């Protein structure tokens, strides 16, 4: 029976394990599967903290449903019934412009009446969209691409806050092709060619495309979470894996022995032998244990930088907040020079996240443009966030409850050259039969991307084992 080790029980490791377990059962090919996790809980960055009737997300707040891999994952975990959709009002978002909140258009029809852009900025963006697609021969930054297509104002007001809100990144340093893979084919040229070649190579090598998704309950497109919060997802995946997970077990290095098997060392000194190793931990943590297996591309793996983010939850009674909080939240463009990235009306997105009559607002600080802010003391962060909410949302009095969480390495930055960096790591990893890298460091930072990649990794493993 082949022995497969997955390192990391975040969403990537758990999803890969559940998919692999499914493929092994469906094809009646038993596998000895172990997931190693250094902490004592599943979920990695997905964490729901509950206190005094509040359910606060410390990592991701919600995810976008609509992809087949997610449908399959939720069906395998037995939780389609636990899916909760965000309230319809959550489509409404605001942006800070000249110190006041302006509603963003939620559809092309609303674009003409938006106050987020001036008439001139709007016309420039519309003209750019109507023009022929911009072709890029080289990797080009997010900022440069949108500046050329939509113009400076739409880039400053819509793209930069979106990028600092989602990626916490600096749009001048992030790679457009890596950060917006669905738009990237528009650029054609060298990058698109590389991408097509990589897809073809993977398909040929693994037969991935030959494995159809199993039947699953269809989860309709939309912003979702789960009853009990997002952490319900990793907890359910861990339950479905029934005893395959070894918690509180840190892997310190991975090598190969003379027989060509992988040897994993744990912090407590065990050395364990495996046929296949799936690295489902962040790139910088993976780099620490790859010195022997990836001597040439180690610096590329270690060179994927991580961005710090702090998140503060502030709870108030409903009467304390003048703003109706009838939306998702708001983003701050860097040019507004405010001390935080944006805020989510977190208690208003899904039911049951705050005691009746109370609301909770989540403020984000830090990011690539302001990393030092994450190191402020809790009291200072709360004071700063409360001060901003007072001015922007008409909050009165003091918060009834607060919580601060810091992610010193919240999100990977897909900087210029990211695709080449990942390509170099994959190329060297391919020299070792059965070594894979998955998770949000490589091919998409959002949870749906992570789940897609987990399915692909499970299929590649199944094909390798000739299931
Ligand atoms: C603040 C924040 C907000 C976000 N918001 C959203 C959002 O709204 N929507 C969305 O789709 N995505 C969001 N994301 C991204 C989302 O959280 C990630 O896509 C996803 O959780 C990454 O999963 P992962 O398994 O790749 O990594 P992780 O969750 O980091 O899991 C890696 C696991 O590996 C373990 N590990 C590390 N080193 C070792 C070792 N040596 N040995 C054993 N185990 C080890 C870790 O303990 C961890 O459990 C957000 C992320 C953050 C930080």
CATH topology of the domain at 3-44 and 64-83 and 195-219 and 226-304 and 414-464: FAD/NAD(P)-binding domain
What is the overall shape?
Answer: globular
* Order of neighbouring strands in the sheet with most strands: 8-7-16-17-18-15-19
Number of strands: 20
Q: Output the number of helix runs.
A: 14
What structural class results from the helix and strand content?
Answer: alpha/beta
The kinds of small molecule bound in this structure are:
flavin-adenine dinucleotide
Mean pLDDT across the residues is 92
Biggest beta sheet summary: 7 strands, mixed
Measured distance between first and last alpha carbons: 12 Å
In terms of DSSP E residues, the strand content is 15-25%
CATH level-four homologous superfamily name of the domain at 3-44 and 64-83 and 195-219 and 226-304 and 414-464: FAD/NAD(P)-binding domain
CATH architecture of the domain at 3-44 and 64-83 and 195-219 and 226-304 and 414-464: 3-Layer(bba) Sandwich
Please write the CATH class name of the domain at 3-44 and 64-83 and 195-219 and 226-304 and 414-464.
Alpha Beta
Gyration radius from CA atoms, angstroms: 23 Å
Determine the fraction of residues in helical runs and give it as a percent range. Answer: 25-40%
**What are the segments in which pLDDT stays under 50 over at least 5 consecutive residues?**
201-207
Short description:
This protein has 14 helices and 20 strands.
